[in-house]
Amino acid sequence: MAIAHNLGFPRIGRDRELKKALETYWRGEIDESELRQTGAELRAAHWQLQRDAGLDLLPVGDFAWYDGVLGHSLMVGAIPERFRDGAAEPTLDTLFAMARGVSSHCCGGPAGPASELTKWFDTNYHYLVPEFSLEQSFQLSWPQLFEEVDEARALGHRVKPVILGPLSYLWLGKAQGFDKLELLERLLPVYGQILDRLAGQGVEWVQLDEPILALDLPQAWKSAFERAYHLLQRAPLKKLVATYFGGLEDNLGLAAGLPVDGLHIDLVRAPEQFPQILDWLPAYKVLSLGVVNGRNVWRCDLDKTLQVLSQAAERLGERLWVAPSCSLLHCPVDLRREAPAEANQWLAFAVQKCEEVALLVRALAQPDAAEVRQALADNRAVLQRRASSRHIHKPEVQARLAAVEPRHSERAAPFAERIASQRERLQLPAFPTTTIGSFPQTPAIRQARQAHRQGRLSDVEYRDAMRGEIRHAVARQEALGLDVLVHGEAERNDMVEYFAEQIDGYAFTRFGWVQSYGSRCVKPAIILGDLHRPRPMTLDWIGYAQTQTDKPLKGMLTGPVTMLMWSFPREDVSAEQQARQLALAIRDEVQDLEAAGVSIIQIDEAAFREGLPLRRAGWQVYLDWAVDAFRLCSAGVSNETQIHTHMCYSEFNEIIEAIATMDADVITIETSRSQMELLEAFRAFDYPNEIGPGVYDIHSPRVPDSSEMLALLEKAIERIPAERLWVNPDCGLKTRGWAETEAALANMVSAARQLRERHGMAAVIPCDV
Length: 769
Ligand SMILES: CN1c2c(nc(N)[nH]c2=O)NC[C@@H]1CNc1ccc(C(=O)N[C@@H](CCC(=O)N[C@@H](CCC(=O)N[C@@H](CCC(=O)O)C(=O)O)C(=O)O)C(=O)O)cc1
Ligand SMILES: N[C@@H](CCS)C(=O)O
Ligand SMILES: [Zn+2]
Fold this sequence. Notes:
This protein is of the alpha/beta class.
């Protein structure tokens, strides 16, 4: 009989228990043993949920205090010098210091900025980038995995530890001035020790995640795979190499031939790998088929999936394993937590996905069992109901889209002409200072929203409370001397969810939390059907904010690509189609803001880079529709209206041309943790429009001083003409407190003023530059 297993379970908790415990610990309100207790309770609950769902083999090692890659760095002793405290072994506080940074005036321990945070492949999860030095050594330093294996076994579970594989780990890290692959020989002995120790604990199978096998790999890395796994071969336990987020393609032969005992492939992202894989797999190996989508929330089409599995079972017998396509980290925890709604019948969250995997395995073994037949019949009926639902197909939305012409994606004049009109209108100083949009989402704001949701605060009371927050944010910005103000986004629960709630065609959850980084979560909305905007979404708030100041105030919207990437999309129509529907909805809002006199409109495309397919072969198709969606939503304004965009993941080297084609008048980007290195692409391409490279990292509570920001701006000026440079933080400030926000922004404004003096720049940039 096939084995039902799982690659990883969400760790944050159904009610975000881990988030709450972490934040309470960081505030000093609970001690380490209380935090650890919450972790243990969550792990126990999650293993039990998976076991109750019917899985045979449960993952251990998928729990992390902040991030799995960070935990792995601790395990192999890759701890940057600035976080080493002289202590022999790292502590939980070492881990949190690496994740969050430490201010020099705090705690008396080592100080320094946090490690870089970046996107986990093409997901909305962020990991902490390992930092490698030339003298890097590795040693087993963090016993968490072994302790959790004991913990799970003591609870009576059959476990499969999950570890990030050595090649993917090195690939995801950062090495300054040398080839990080050179570290492999130093790293592998530690992997050997880890595997030996797990074997000593009685572990039979270990899962080594090597998602980079789904990427275009240089030959040196392909060869390194063979070398590495040959060396790890002697460890006395069975190894399953797990690949996901894409197909193996040219790495198929390599992956199938590695000297390990099993291979997991993602058949949701790359169904074409089957049945070809059967011909490549050595006869002794287990094949784990990832057939239940770990990246979306739709129920699995069980009939269709069983056709594939039955064929596989015929060839593989007991060597067939069944699993979700990837870790379920990217899914909400449990659909049973939601209130009843028509759409629920179409959905499956992590717990339900485990049940689907178990059911598929049962259906293979006992296709005629009454409960199996019933479950398959139910599944069929549900899928049919969805296909014919009136919530999905809206002829008026489709007709509007069909009438779109290329001219709708063209600004009236080229950038050089537009910027002159905009400078004339805006009268901004050189190096204009601004922020990315959000100001601190304080407990008071969140509590007001909760009270409003629960009916304890009327619509008018809620509006007045948010207007109070807007007045406060505007007044603080004026006092700080910022040049372009924002309303602060107090009224938004999230930059995507807020808009999704106002666009017809979306569905929402109440508890569908997914970890984004550390303790921060998002609740992605679900695109059910055709999308349109029935009424203005931001006009009242932004109009109100503009009445509070004479300075220019940026209208703040989320762009179509980001709306799509950070939602759970439909699978019955293309991503392009969904992005174009969203673009029209946002275009309507842009035009309403312009008509209301808003002179600058920022359309955030924070997820633009993340949407880029993992394999280069898919890039152009994506870039064409993604750029066009942005242009479609932004191009309908006059030359005097300045369009900004913002992206928080700025590795643009290879797509800078597409970024330029978006033709935003100003782009603000995240660059501070990379010390402005990411601007190199803009310099090399001679990017024509204006740029605001982030001068400080907003993910950390640390307040950088103005000299630090000035130094970064000087680096920026080496790469970008001074008259096109803006000054802003890396991203929005919603996660920060007011005290640190004001301190950091005051330093930022001071840095901009010093820069103006140093470079003798005019107070107002002339229009003909
Ligand atoms: C820019 N980022 C975003 C990404 N994806 C998004 N969808 N949105 C983003 O902004 N991806 C990349 C980055 C990731 N960065 C972040 C940064 C910050 C957060 C974050 O702060 N998340 C919040 C949850 C936000 C939210 O939905 N808030 C709601 C509900 C708040 C709440 O918990 N209410 C309580 C009651 C009130 C209380 O006591 O505090 C409750 O309901 O129980 C709201 O404001 O109404 C987080 O807390 O993690 C995410 C990604
Ligand atoms: N306007 C948003 C962008 C985040 S990427 C914010 O400031 O939070
Ligand atoms: Zn951002």
